[in-house]
Amino acid sequence: MRPAAVCLVLLAILCGCPASQNPGSDTPDSGMNPEPDASTCEAKPTCSVTIRYTGAGGSVQLRGDFAANGWTQGVAMMKVDGGFEVTLPVRDQQVIVYKFVVDGNWIMDPGNGRKSPDGFGAFNSVMRADCDKCPARAAIDWRDSIMYFVMIDRFANGDTVNDAPVSGVEQPGQYQGGDYKGLKQKIDEGYFNALGVNTLWLTSPIDNADNANPGSDGHQYSGYHGYWPKNLDASESKYGTEAELKAVVDAAHAKGIQVLIDYVMNHVHADSPIYQQHQDWFWPNTNGSGGNCVCGQGCSWDNDRIRCWFDPFLPDFDFRNADARRYSIENAMQWAKRLGIDGFRLDAVKHLETVWLTDLRARMTPEMAWDQPFYMVGETFDGSRDLIKSYVDQTMLDGQFDFPLRGKILENVLRRDGSMTDLAGFLSSNDGFYGQGSVMSTFIGNHDVPRAVHIAEDSPQ
Question: Domains of the chain (ranges plus CATH)?
Answer without folding.
Answer: 12-25+139-282+317-457 (3.20.20.80), 42-128 (2.60.40.10)
